[in-house]
Every structure is written in structure tokens, then in C-alpha cells.
Amino acid sequence: MAVVPASLSGQDVGSFAYLTIKDRIPQILTKVIDTLHRHKNEFFEKHGEEGVEAEKKAISLLSKLRNELQTDKPIIPLVEKFVDTDIWNQYLEYQQSLLNESDGKSRWFYSPWLFVECYMYRRIHEAIIQSPPIDYFDVFKESKEQNFYESQESVIALCTHLQQLIKTIEDLDENQLKDEFFKLLQISLWGNKCDLSLSGGESSSQKTDALNSLEDLKPFILLNDMEHVWSLLSNCKKTREKASVTRVYIVLDNSGFELVTDLILANFLLSSELATEVHFYGKTIPWFVSDTTIHDFNWLIEQVKHGNHKWMSKCGADWEEYVKMGKWVYHDHIFWTLPHEYCAMPQVAPDLYAELQKAHLILFKGDLNYRKLTGDRKWEFSVPFHQALNGFHPAPLCTIRTLKAEIQVGLKPGQGEQLMASEPCWWTSGKYGIFQYDGPL
Q: Which segments constitute the Damage-control phosphatase ARMT1-like metal-binding domain (predicted)?
């Protein structure tokens, strides 16, 4: 395997990784502790004194975690038995084996940023599962739901657009269909701005009509491989036999408004017959503040179905029907909440890799997926995407991401450097987006 560059880490003072570990992560932990405090009465009503004691225990474990992080203590193994505990602890041992530290211990600021950030969310989950009877509690649920409620007007506008489009979809010629597809891909891209882990858990809802902003946002798409995605799916549609299937997989990112944009896109894929099945991959545990779990997926469809607008509730009813019919399938797998980069999937989760190989196209949403696809390493801007994937090629794939981390490959020579000179925060602000494809052309 070719030599890969070093991992991004907090040891580069002033870098986005450094500022995340120093400021954003402690801020998120403080919000989690505050959330548990605010639910004290609910825990007492449900579980009596036992609930209050559990809340105190979880807060104490999280306060300890925050202290470990802020004082750059060694990273310690997980202790609570869970389905992934052994894999995590083996990975921690592996990270320690790579170190030149005199005490051989992984530390927060000196270990790969991808690893420590994932580890922090896994430790939050550990604190909750160590505190029964409140071990079911999703500390991020409120903020995810708030993001959806605050984006209502945008959700209604998108649902209305989709339902009007579906009415005339059979009358559209190929170019018109392609234009509509591109619109919904772009909606899904800019929906990715609504990321609560980037805002430290503060509100990041969509309050403007996304459809009317698309033209203004086009100059901020740095890489645009939408044509490749279209030609792949339209060829699948043209060559498909009557009984055969076209599967599109969407590896989800945020719940709330972004998930609505993904479901709108998935609905269009079925209505336009560009796909016959859409499979969604979410997280098994609450993750990176706003990532989608099965509860979020089902909750959101239910909310849309009971929305107080006819086109919104029509979308929700249709989506529920797709799930019942098996045209939409939700999956989760522990691999998505492990710290491994995706090129390790064939070894760590061969069952998942085999599943992804059945896709005609995989859409990877958001920043964390991009970081894991590229190994979160210090790649040169112009390194080809295919090379940065480091052997991860289960099926044709396209990443749909607004940039919120110091990693970007596949740019034209000099493009990244030019952006860096004019806008030092260009790759962490969420202002720019990409559609980056890997697969047959």
C-alpha cells in the first residue's frame, strides 16, 4: 500500500483540530452535562431517587472526562461492556503502539484528531450506559428536534416543491429531469450546513428558503461531479430489465433539516425511477451531536406526516409507505461509530463492506464521512480522490459535503493554495461545498 501522510492532530497549535479539542469539545461536554441537569425532574418522576442518583453518576463521569481532556491526560480504555468495547480497546492499543511517547500513552492533543473526537462521543455514550435506569437517554435528542422545528418553513417549501414536481414528472424530458435532480442534490449539499457539532451544539437550523438560494450558492461549489452521478443513474435506468433493481445507498449525516433534504432527494430518486430502492445508513448510538439514529429517522418521518401543511403531511405519508414496502430501508452498523478510517472496513467490518458492494451508487453525506474516507490526513490539495481513498472502492461513490475540517483533496493544482491566501478559513467555515465522485466514468 502506498505511503500515506500523517494524521491531522491537536498537536498543531492553532489548527482546526487543536481548536476543536481545546474549545469545541469541552463546550459540547458542558452542554451535555447541562442537559442532564435540566432533566433531573423527569428522571425523578420516571425512576424516583434511583433516577436522580443515575443522573448524578452520569454527570460525575462526564465531568471526569472533561477534566481528562482539558489536562491532556492519557486516553483510557473503555470499561463498560458493550457490543463494540473490545474493538475500541484494541484500536486504542494500536494507537499506543504507534507512539514514540516515553510513557507509551495516547493523549488527547497528540493522538489523531479523528480518533480522539470519536472517542469523546463514545465516552459520552459510556457515561450514559453506566448510569441505569437512565441508560436509554439521548443527550442530543432535544437539540436535534429543535433544529427540525426551527426549520419548519424551509421544510414546507421543500415538500411543496417536491409534490408539485412529482405531479409533472412524467412530462419532463431528460434535460428537465436532470435539472431537477441537480437542484435536489444541491439542496442536500447545503442542508449539510446544519451541523450541531460544528456550532458546539448551538442552534443551526435552516431559516431561509433553500431553493431560492441555489443560484447564489453555485460559485461556492469547489468540485462538481453531479454530471457523473447523473450519467451513472440514468444509464442504470435505461439498461434496467423490468424485474431488476437499482440501489442507491445514502450514508447519512445530520438529523433535522439535513435529513429532510436527504429524504426529499430519496423520494425523487424513486419517483423519477433513477433508483428502485434507497438504503439509508445511520448511527447505532447518539453521535457528533446531530447525527441520525433510527429513533431520529422514524421520529422525523412521523413529524412530517403530522405536519400542519398538506404537502408536508403528504410527503410524510409517502415516506412511511416507502419504509413499509421496503423501497426505503434503514440500516445501522457499529462500524459507523468506530474510529477507523473506511479503508479498514474490509478487515474490521467485512459484512458491511459486502453490503455496500451491492450498491449501484453510494452517497456519503457530510464532513465526518469525508474525513473517514480520506483517513483525515495531511494530504496535498491536488492528490486524486481515488488515491486518498486508500483502496476503499466498494462501489461507485460520491461525497456530498460542506467543508468543515482541514482536509480536501482532488482540487486543481494551485486552487487550494489560492483559497488559503485569500480566505484562511475557507475549508472549515461550511461556506464551500463539493460533489466528489469516484467510480467508472
A: 20-419
* Domain span including residue 157: 140-438
In one-letter notation, the amino acid at residue 163 is: Q
Same domain, 224 and 287: yes
Q: Are residues 188 and 117 in the same domain?
A: no
Instruction: Give 264-309 pLDDT, tens digit per residue.
Output: 999 999 999 999 999 999 999 999 999 999 999 999 999 999 999 9
Q: Which of 99, 130, 161 is the last residue of a domain?
A: 130
Distance of CA 286 to CAs 142, 253, 393, Å?
A: 12, 12, 27
pLDDT in tens, 347-371: 999 999 999 999 999 999 999 999 9
**Domain boundary, last residue among 82, 111, 130:** 130
| Global pTM value | 0.97
Task: Give the Cα-Cα-Cα angle 122, 250, 331 (nearest 5 degrees).
Answer: 60
Rounded to 5°, angle at Cα 267 from 321 and 165? 115
25: exposed, middle or buried (C-beta count within 10 Å: 0-12, 13-18, 19+)? buried
b/e burial code for range 275-310 (CB count within 10 A of at least 16 → b): bbbbbbbbbbbbbbbbbbbeebbebbbebbbebebe
**H or E, element range at 329:** strand 328-332
